[in-house]
Design a protein that fits this description.
Strand content: 35-45%
Shape: globular
CATH architecture: 6 Propeller
Helix content: under 10%
CATH topology: Neuraminidase
CATH class: Mainly Beta
Number of strands: 25
CATH superfamily: TolB, C-terminal domain
Oligomer: single chain
Length: 313
């Protein structure tokens, strides 16, 4: 999928086909075009879902034992749970509406998610032990991409309720939400830092709407800092490392060069994983810091699947 760019380290996998060259003084030699190379990826990458359905938005449980994800394998999008090796698949939600974008509570007992099961697209909370989801909040405009604070008291999310995609927060038990950003361009995908002091997100606020870059801010929306400075690239759907000193993000550029990149908290690119996907997005760092789960479309036209790979390779 990805072909270049090495700032600190490049991890790229791919084979280049070499066709036999035709000799100009030997017109009898027939030259056949090279056969396309099979797409190869490091053996350490594992396809956890391996299903023709669209599987995406993996989210690690706080203890690192499970991954929640969304899938349309049963007709519409619902939430599913599996072990970190892909075994023990369970369906968590059953509804005619679409349930997506799961995020765990810090105690691992509940999941907040986006759903259009009732009027509007709202946020709901599901108990892992079963039962029916409980309503958190909704608006006529979509409520998206929730994330739970490490102390369990707040949920940050993206909302279009004020006319533009901005970041809001609400108490975990419900109530009136608070608007944290008010930008001309979209602010999306809030993620609490492990110490609970900042929110990571992506935005086009400094690029005149042309490119998504990574930012962090204080919990009240103040002290906004831009983390990435790559004007030819999009950076989106980021996640913090468990130590809070690095960030994993999906990257793409105008030439459809797509990869995962690890940045320092200061915005320096440290690693780039180029594993020959048509599209890669929604990376999630495991709680022990050793692995990345993410969604990817292996080939053009194929559905997304959930993969896992080591951070160190």
């Amino acid at each position: 999928m990805v072909k270049r760019v090495a700032l600190v380290a490049v991890i790229a996998v791919g084979l280049v086909a070499c066709a036999p060259a035709q000799q100009p003084d030997d017109p009898e030699v027939a030259v056949e075009p090279p056969a396309p190379d099979p797409v190869e990826r490091p053996a350490t990458i594992t396809n956890l879902t391996n299903h023709p359905a669209e599987d995406r938005a993996p989210a690690w449980s706080p203890d690192g034992r499970f991954l929640a994800f969304e899938s349309d394998r049963d007709g519409n999008r619902d939430l599913y749970l599996m072990a970190g090796d892909g075994s023990g698949l369970q369906r968590l939600t059953v509804d005619d509406g679409d349930d997506s974008q799961p995020a765990w509570s810090p105690d691992g007992r509940r999941i907040v998610f986006r759903s259009d099961r009732d009027a509007g697209t709202g946020l709901w909370i599901h108990d892992i032990d079963g039962g029916e989801p409980t309503f958190l909040l909704a608006d006529a405009s979509p409520e998206l991409t929730p994330d739970w604070s490490p102390d369990g008291t707040r949920i940050a999310f993206t909302s279009l309720r004020a006319g533009n995609a901005d970041i809001w927060a609400v108490a975990a038990q419900g109530g009136a939400p608070t608007r944290l950003t008010d930008s001309e361009y979209r602010d999306v995908w809030p993620r609490f830092s492990p110490d609970g002091e900042r929110l990571l997100f992506f935005s086009r606020r400094d690029t005149d709407g042309a490119r998504d870059q990574l930012y962090s801010m204080a919990l009240d929306g103040a002290d906004v800092e831009r983390l990435t400075e790559q004007p030819t690239h999009h950076h989106f759907t980021p996640d913090w490392s468990p130590a809070g000193d690095r960030v994993i993000t999906a990257i793409s550029d105008s030439d459809a060069d797509r990869a995962l990149g690890i940045f320092s908290a200061a915005g320096e690119l440290e690693l780039r994983f180029a594993d020959n996907y048509n599209r890669v997005f929604q990376p999630a760092w495991s709680p022990d810091g050793t692995h990345l789960a993410y969604a990817a479309r292996p080939e053009e036209g194929e559905a997304a699947e959930v993969f896992i790979r080591p951070v160190s390779q």
